[in-house]
């Protein structure tokens, strides 16, 4: 009985280590039919992930998909919340075998190999967040984050992506992402792709940020130049 108990504890611990070791950002590159280099970035936060492909040179958005995930041993299971290539996959689950080392992820039988970008540092906003409100004219306007219409922002230690979508209607409204930094209360986004307007690729936007009671307060000027003060809550 003691041997069995020890085995179970060790096995559960190894699952936890593997799940934790996947947190962060990963990338791989492919070549399109016309010879363009395409970049695929995968971000894993606690419980949620995204996978996005865009032109590595021009920033042209190609596709994105994502949702929740869990890792049991070497089996990764994902539940799809959005998929721009196939909206019918929204709400479905898929499981597949993965091999994970400190700097590589290999999806077995799919010829997919990802290289690590970061381990969830150095940025201070790593995690999956949902927009939970705005402050306008000094008044807080709350948003129900349990509703199917979501705006999620997912960050590793150096990469960010926001996604607007609806899990009930399977509608996808838009996404953008790239790299970010957090220094001295300033949050800077360096945009590498923007699904609504490829010309936004290459822009850098600076915002003030502050964590108040666990919520991320994000204020400054949007990509359109409009003043914003958003509140984001960590996704459970």
Question: What's the CATH class label of the largest domain?
Answer: Mainly Beta
For this structure, the CATH topology of the largest domain is: Lipocalin
The CATH level-2 architecture of the largest domain is identified as: Beta Barrel
Indicate the mean pLDDT.
92
- SSE string: HEEEEEEEEEEEEEEEEE
DSSP helix fraction: under 10%
What structural class should be given to the helix and strand makeup? Answer: mainly beta
Radius of gyration, in Å, reads 19 Å
* Shape by Cα distribution: globular
CATH homologous superfamily title of the largest domain: Uncharacterised protein PF14869 family, DUF4488
Low-confidence stretches: 1-17
In the sheet with the most strands, the strands line up as: 1-2-3-4-5-6-7-8
Percent range for β-strand residues: over 45%
Count the beta strands.
17
Question: What is the rounded distance between the termini?
Answer: 36 Å
Structural write-up:
Strand 9 and strand 10 form a beta hairpin. This protein has two domains: 96 residues, Beta Barrel (Lipocalin), CATH 2.40.128; 108 residues, Uncharacterised protein PF14869 family, DUF4488 (Lipocalin, Beta Barrel), CATH 2.40.128.490. It is mainly beta and 236 residues long. It has one helix and 17 strands. 28% of the residues are buried. The chain is globular, with a radius of gyration of 19 Å. Helix content is 8%, strand content 59%.
